[in-house]
Amino acid sequence: MRLLWLVMPWSVGAAAADALGACSETSARIVSAELWAVWALVLTATLVRRPWALTVIRIAAPASVGVAIGSVVAAVSWNADLAAPRAATAIAGAAIATAIALLPETGNSMIDGLSYGNERRLLLRTPFLLAIAPVPLVWTAVVVGIAAPAVLWAIEQWIWAVVATLTGLTSAALGFRSLHQLARRWVVFVPNGFVLHDRMATREPFLLRRVDIASLGPAPADIDLTADDLVDISSNALGPVLLVELDGQVEVVPRTTGTAQVLAVSRVLFSPTRPGEMLAEAARRRLPR
User: Cα(86)–Cα(68) distance, rounded to whole angstroms?
Assistant: First the structure.
């Protein structure tokens, strides 16, 4: 990811420069300045293994595909001298960077930068209802909120540019905050067991102690989700779901719209982005499986 983003000025950047060739000098400078600023921010994020850096990467990388395609279309429509190999390189480079940014392994590596000592962090999968519509819509609001002001300043629409700057940057900040919550949902392996940290599903993180864990593995397809001793924090995420069974009970406070209710359960369902890696890490730590 670092290497792909480092060479982005020679792929997407080159296509954008060709597209800006037909613009006025002032317009080209404004758009170029924003593109360079975003590039520098994302490059810095690839060097810092933190949840906020993961959010930055996962917002900017897909946006680079739009920049590449838009630059190619604009250059062709303005009869700019854009070679086919350069256009293909720009789009392919942005698409590959996006694919890598969205890999579960990339997410796990970035958030694990918070770990210290014998800890290990693994991301939880995005809830299904959020993934199908809200996440793409909020991502669009963030990207448009950042890009629209620069475009309006570039075409000298001063009044609309001021309005877009105030509203766009505000919506981008709020959208970033919302998307960032997805990068703060994880499993934390600790010497005493592991913690499930998902404030979208529960009001507080909770520890599953090593001495209490009876088994950890894939959940059976016919499991009774209405059982009193079971809590499901998988949020209907697509993909395999893991089940941890306890020799005892743990207190969980599910996040509901009403009054907080403490549940004492002996079975918990959850969905890490890489269930196999979760089980492999449990094996390395000699947890029951």
Answer: 10
